[in-house]
Every structure is written in C-alpha cells, then in structure tokens.
Hints:
Elements: H1 24-40, E1 44-45, E2 51-53, H2 54-61, H3 66-71, E3 73-76, E4 82-85, H4 90-99, E5 109-118, E6 130-139, H5 144-160, E7 167-172, H6 179-192, H7 199-207, H8 218-224, H9 236-252, E8 257-258, E9 270-279, H10 286-293, H11 297-305, E10 308-310, H12 317-321, E11 325-326, E12 330-338, H13 342-347, E13 353-359, H14 360-369, E14 372-374, E15 382-386, H15 389-405, E16 409-411, H16 418-428, E17 432-436, H17 438-443, E18 445-450, E19 456-460, H18 464-473
Parallel strand pairs: 1-5, 7-8, 15-16, 15-17
Antiparallel strand pairs: 2-4, 3-4, 5-6, 6-13, 7-9, 9-12, 10-14, 11-12, 12-13, 17-18, 18-19
Amino acid sequence: MSKKPNKEPIQSLKGFHDILPADVPYYDRVGKEVRRVSEYYGFQTIRLPHVENAELFTRTLGETSDIVEKQMYNFRTRGGSSVVLRPEGTASMVRAYVEHGMQSLPQPVSLFYEGSFFRHENPQAGRLREFRQAGIEVLGEKDPIHDTLIIRVLLSALDALGIRDVQVSLNSIGDKASRPHYIKELTAYYRKNIGDLCKDCKRRLKENPMRVLDCKDANCVLLKTHAPQSMNYLSEESKKHFSQVLEHFDEIGISYEIDPWLVRGLDYYNDTVFELFVPAHRADDNVKEVSAMVATASDEEADKDKGVAVEKPATTEHEEDVGGVEEGGMLALGGGGRYDMLASMLFGKTVFGAGGALGIDRVVGEIKRRNLKIRPDVIPKVFLIQIGPTAKRKILRITEDLRKVGIPFAHALGKDALKRQLSIADKMKVPYALIIGQKEAIEERAILRSMETGTQEHVAFEKIPTVLKLKLKA
Ligand code: HAM
C-alpha cells in the first residue's frame, strides 16, 4: 500500500528568506549604489561562484573561526569532493586573482562583487543563514591609501543611500612580526583570568588567543576591556603603515574611532581592520530616529536628487530577523581589512590585498527603519485601459511600441470594466491613461487622458509613442 502523503506545509528554511517584490527595489538599489560608487573609484565587477572547495575557507578563515567551526554548509559532491556554499567572498576573490593570472595585469586589481553568502548562524541572534553582501577588494599592492579608500567607497555608498551616521571603528592587529609578542602578553593576561572566560574561550585561548577578543559572552566582553592592545605591539613597519592610513583619513576628513580590541573573526587579516556601525534600533525607536533623519528640507531634497524618497516606513517580518546587534547596541553594516597573508595560506606566495563588504540585508533594514524609501528603477508613466476584446488585441501592439521608445506602462489586461481600470490607474499615480474602447479600436485612435487634470484628447495609434514622449518631457 502506498504511504499516506505528508501534509505538513512546506515553508522556506529558517534563516532563508524570499525577497518579496516590494523589497526587491531596496536590495537592487543597495547593490547598484555600492557598484556605482566603486566604479567611480576604478573597481571592476567580478562574479564568483556560490560553491567552492571547502579547503579554500578552512585554510584561510582559520580552523577555529566560528565560520569554519560551525557555520559552513558543507557537502560532498557525487565525485566525493568536499565543497561548501561560500560563507564570504574574500578568499574566493584571491583564488580567482591567482587562478586567472591577474598578477600580470596592471596592479592593483580592484574588484567589486555582490551576491548571496551562507552561514549556518543562529537566526535567533538576528542573523540570516543566506545573506547578501556587496564587497570590494584591492589586490596586488600594499599602499596604505587603499585601506583608507576602501572605507571611503563604502561610506560614500551608504551616504548616497541616505545613511550618514556611520561610525568607523578601526584597529591595527599588526603584521606577522608584530604577533608573537602580542599573543604572548594576551595569553598571559587571559590565563590569569581564566576562571572568568566562557567555555568556548577557554578552548580558544589554547588554539587562537586573539579569537577571545571577538567573543560576545558578557563576561568575556568585560574582561576584554583590560586586555593588552595590539596597537602597543606593532612592528615598525606596521606602525608606519597604520599611521599613514590615519593620515589619509584626516586628509579626506573621515572621522573614526580606534577600537583597540577590534580583531574580526577571521585568520586572514593583518594590519588594518575595520567595522562600520550604526546605532541599533529597537522597534519603538524608529519613529524618533526617522524624524531626526528627515528634519531638514535640504537633506530631504538631497535624498530626492539621489532617488531616495522619504515615505512612511514599511516593515516586513524579514526586517525583524536582521539584527546582528553587537555589544554597545551597535549594528555592523560592514567590515573588512587588510589580508596580505591570505594568498600564502592558499598558494604559498604573497599577494597583497585589502577590502571590505557591506551586508546588503542590514543596509536594506536600515533604509526602511529610517523611512527612506527607494524608488523602483521603472516607474509606469501610462496606464493602458481597454474595453472589449478588439481593444485588448490592439493594446498588445501598443505595448511593444511603448517599450521600444522606453516608456514604462502598467495595465490590468485581465479586467474589462472602465471604472475598475481607471481606479487602479489612479491608485498607481500614473500621469496618463490610454483608453481604447470598441469605437477607438476600429478608428485606430486612442483616448489619451491626463490623470491629473482629467483632460482628454484623441491620438492616432501610430502617433502614441511620439505624443506621449513629448508630454512626459514637458
Ligand atoms: P563579515 O564582517 O563577516 O566580513 O561580513 C561583512 C558584513 O556582512 C557584516 O558587517 C554584516 O553586515 C554582513 N553579515 C555577515 N554575516 C551576516 C549574517 N549572517 N546575516 C546578515 N548579514 C551578515 C566578511 O565577510 C569579509 N569577507 C569582508 C571583507 C572583504 N574583508 C576583506 N574584504
């Protein structure tokens, strides 16, 4: 006998979300803005695969990093290879740079990427398991100017999106030569206080003491505030590098805060590390924050110029999930740093590199919380109304004419009643409606109605694109 079918409703997996049509323009806009600003600064776009050899990440992020220890989506291919859904983009980028011989291109090679990344995080902590990043990497040169420019680009993109109260947290964790002394002092400090460390950190202390600084456990956070600071153990070269990064910041007027314990959770970093924070919001904070953000007309105008319109906040269930609130009530919108040793972890040769990435889901969450609504790329300019089967057929011809001249249109071709279609056009706030009834279909001329004034005129079918174009221009 056949088994009874399981009637449990099938839903999306925990931490994986559908991005609904109302949210897609936000996601598109964020990705496009980071790409647009990056392109101004000479970055080219690269698309990297979603599945990579597992070793790419185990070798570079560190065996004891949270990602490698517990967050990778691992599986075996039919051929038996161990592969993962990419948890981040930097290691892939370095792999691609070497694999495609980009060393022979003029250096540095500056690349932008965007897409989904996967980490099996605890969604209760407000993190997604599939999340999106827009990132930039500068490969093949060690000049400190790149460390500063990367942050400049990410901040400019956030600024263009209307997010301006970003706190830049910076630190230098030094180079290879800086590490041994620092690690020794750090280990000694934590050994003295081992009783106050969480269970995971007791283990981390043996495997990778710097990782303890990244722990979110309340006691470990407290203990950190008296821990030795990497900045006091920098080699001469690292000191010089970081002071130049800071000079460049001063030169371009970006303010920053030094967080002397900022390490970031991945092994591949050296020297400069950074995070970009905004104050995290509770749901009831939204309204206050929104009014502060839109207080000045000039700000509002500036936003409009950039295609960011100020409207009522739209909240979705998805927004609640994107927390990721760090200690001190801050939300990390992005992070990055320098990783000159990453390539040697993979290929045994040095490729200088620095980069950073923004979490697109979190940036979208912030835009919505701040009441900054993104305009969709395509806004319909004319609503096509048809009454009767002949008119419906004629309208099909007109849709293509409009598309060819780039006039976006909306329609309700499945509906026939004039009143119903006019009311939809009204709600969509399109400036014009084209009405074709039985008579207009036979005479091959439509009624062009201004939705604002209600005035109407007849326009021959073949003249519709030209007439509409002129009117929309006016
Ligand atoms: P990351 O700090 O792990 O860095 O991620 C960068 C940003 O992605 C975070 O600041 C956050 O906004 C977002 N993000 C990370 N995990 C999640 C999650 N589970 N849910 C939602 N958003 C998340 C990196 O991935 C490095 N590859 C960045 C980099 C580029 N370093 C050098 N170049």
